[in-house]
Structures are given as structure tokens and as C-alpha cells.
Amino acid sequence: MIVDLNCDMGEGFGVYRLGDDAEMLTVATSANIACGFHAGDPLVMHETLSRAAANGVQAGAHPSFLDLWGFGRRPIHGERPADIEKAVLYQVGALLALAQDAGCPVRHVKTHGAMGNMANEDADLALAVARAIRTLDRDLIFVVMPGLETERAGEKLGLPIAREIYADRAYADDGTLVSRKLPGAVLHDPDAVSQRVARMLEDGAITCLSGRRIPTRIDTVCVHGDTPGAVAMARRLRAECAAKGIALRPMAEVLGV
């Protein structure tokens, strides 16, 4: 069995830094790089792309709502899908330009924070994101949560799809993530997290907070880079996968695209 280990990166801004990207790039196999709307700036984006290339890590775009103040985690309502589509085009297009200079191909797109959560439940928003990806490059991989609107949008538009689970987040029974405002939503114990992920990979199913199982294909596992102890968690997860005979490979290699 092979699977990708992805992490959100490039989430600094100006003189501010968040997460240990240099170390995480020695562990993860794919990097979701912030594109300036919730974090990141041209210098941070270029630096992260360059480091990803040096470490053989697959680079991807991590677009969001325009919400630096709230780190892209605040829902923004009332935006037209057509406007969201243009916002995604703008962000991913910027990363593609910087990637060309950095010599690091961009292979996937994964929505961040509230944009991703809302797109998972809003078919029009999910299709807007998928249309933007298809416009830029039909071969870009759309990272989606299984069984939700983003998966359906990617399938409808014929995009390559990577079905993702979260190592450090709890699931509700409908397959969405438990709100960060609720107890138990974010998981911090590296041993418990790595064992939980290994079980999900072996079972081919998401384990919900209630104990419910949702069968699915799993292509990639996410560890959040801004979570305290993220690198240690990723290293422990990598070791657990190796012990179970699960190899970690970049997302495109897992999908064979």
C-alpha cells in the first residue's frame, strides 16, 4: 500500500513565521502552499517552493477566502460562486508563476479552512473551485474529502482526485470535520494519531468521533503544520506507516498521474 502525507506550509507573512516548514519538508511527501489570502506572500511562497523542490516534495496550491486576520478560518457568506472561482484562479495562478521561477512544478490544489469546509457542503461553491482548477490545468489534482460536494464536483468536471483524511482532526458522522470550537476536534497525541490513521488506512474507512466507519479510498493523509508538535506527529505517523508496510509517496505517484 502507498499513500501520500501532505502538510499545509508557507503560512508565514512578512517577518512572521508559522510552523517549521524546513523540518516538515523532510517528513511530508506533498506540501500545500498558502497563496497570500490567508497566509503567505511572494517571498514566502517562493522560498517554500524552492525548499519543496530541494527535498523532492510535491508542491500544491492552498487557496482560501481573503482573510489574513482570521487565517482563512472564518466563514464568508454572500460571495457569488463566480467571484470565488476568480479568487481561486488568482491565487493558484500566482503560485504557478512563482513555481516556474523556482523550478518546482505545482501538481495539486487543496482549499484551506472555511473555504474548504463550505465547499464540502455547497455544490455551487465546490463546482466554482473545480472550474478554476480545470481552467488553469486539467491535470491538476483536486484534493477532496470523500463523499462530500468537492469530490462530486471533481468527478463531474473530470479532474484527477486525491481523497484525503486528516490525521489530527475528528470526524462527524456525516464525514465532515468536527468544528474546532468543540472539545476533541483537534487531536494532539502522536501515538494515538498514528495508530488511528494506520487503522483507517488498513480498513479503508474513516473513523468518526462516534465510532461510525465510513468506507472510502484514501490517497493522502494531512497533518496540519501550525499544530503544536506537528513535526513530531508527522515523524511518528511516518514510522507507524513504515512498521505497517505502508509506503509514503507524493500524491501524483499514489494516483499514477
TrEMBL record:
Transmembrane segments: none annotated. Gene3D superfamilies: Glycoside hydrolase/deacetylase. HAMAP family: PxpA (MF_00691). InterPro entries: Glyco_hydro/deAcase_b/a-brl, LamB/YcsF/PxpA-like. Keywords: ATP-binding, Hydrolase, Nucleotide-binding, Plasmid. The keyword Hydrolase applies. The keyword Transport does not apply. It holds the Pfam family LamB_YcsF. It comes from Methylobacterium radiotolerans (strain ATCC 27329 / DSM 1819 / JCM 2831 / NBRC 15690 / NCIMB 10815 / 0-1). This is 5-oxoprolinase subunit A. Forms a complex composed of PxpA, PxpB and PxpC. Belongs to the LamB/PxpA family. GO terms for molecular function: 5-oxoprolinase (ATP-hydrolyzing) activity; ATP binding. GO terms for biological process: carbohydrate metabolic process. It catalyses: 5-oxo-L-proline + ATP + 2 H2O = L-glutamate + ADP + phosphate + H(+). Catalyzes the cleavage of 5-oxoproline to form L-glutamate coupled to the hydrolysis of ATP to ADP and inorganic phosphate. Its EC number is 3.5.2.9. CDD domains: LamB_YcsF_like.
